[in-house]
Amino acid sequence: MSEQQPVVLEKRPDGIAIVKIVRPVALNALNLATRKALAEAFAGLQDDPEVRCIVLTGDEKAFAAGADLKELADADAVEIMKRRTERYWQTVARTPQPIIAAIQGFALGGGLELAMICDIVVAGENAQLGQPEVRVGIIPGAGGTQRLTRAVGKFQAMRLCLTGRPISGREAYEIGLASLAVPDGEVMETALKMAEGIAKLPPLAVASVKEAILHGENASLESGLALERKAFQLLFATQDRREGMAAFIEKRKPKFPGS
């Protein structure tokens, strides 16, 4: 694919959307055009009732090898501030459907920050994940010091951010940075199989799980439990809940309408 189309979107009939970064000449580095294209793709999926799960990926060499330094090398602080690139990642983060990051090769800097916005991370065992920004005189600027610390704790986050050295997909799984580590050639197959399972589940309940976990993560336990309880109660008003429980009692496969 060309530089004019850095992101490709595929909608499948089984409720899965695949969002693929395609800048192979730059190891899928995240230039401004790519960030905008990602935000546009996810914005278009958010209100699509036919899309129940999203897989975000790159290629076998790179998920995304970080920000494109060619766009940053001559920028000053005011210019960087005016770009407001955080808007694009916020669009991805606000997507109600579950997002699975399927990582092969490099997921560095902004690429790892993008993966951490996702809800599930499937990494190849030999993938390389890291926050190397300190090695070029900056720090992570889109969640690498914050989401990473919440995911793996202070000491592992310090190690990754202060050394700038990447870790393998296997180690990422061991420290809690990945949901699964699988053989490199099985990453997409595993991610899609998981997405297929999620897409068959009642979408309102799935969205409520995501919302409760994300909003409860940094709340007090009492507030998080209240959020969870209200979501639990409201789901009793859905057709999906009626269908799911009826199908279980009647020992048949449910057909969830998404209402």
Mean pLDDT: 94
Architecture per CATH nomenclature, i.e. the level-2 architecture of the largest domain: Alpha-Beta Complex
- Provide the β-strand percentage band: 15-25%
CATH superfamily of the largest domain: 2-enoyl-CoA Hydratase, Chain A, domain 1
Global geometry: globular
Short description:
This protein is α/β, with parallel strands linked by helices and 259 residues long.
Structure, explained:
This protein is of the alpha/beta class and 259 residues long. It folds into two domains: 193 residues, 2-enoyl-CoA Hydratase, Chain A, domain 1; 48 residues, Lyase 2-enoyl-coa Hydratase, Chain  A, domain 2 (Orthogonal Bundle). It contains eleven helices and ten strands. It has a six-stranded mixed β-sheet with strand order 1-2-3-5-7-10, sandwiched between helices. A hairpin with a 4-residue loop joins strand 1 and strand 2. Helix 1 runs parallel beside helix 3 and helix 9 packs antiparallel against helix 10. The radius of gyration is 19 Å and the shape is globular. The chain starts with 6 loop residues before the first strand and ends in a 9-residue tail after the last helix. The mean pLDDT is 94.
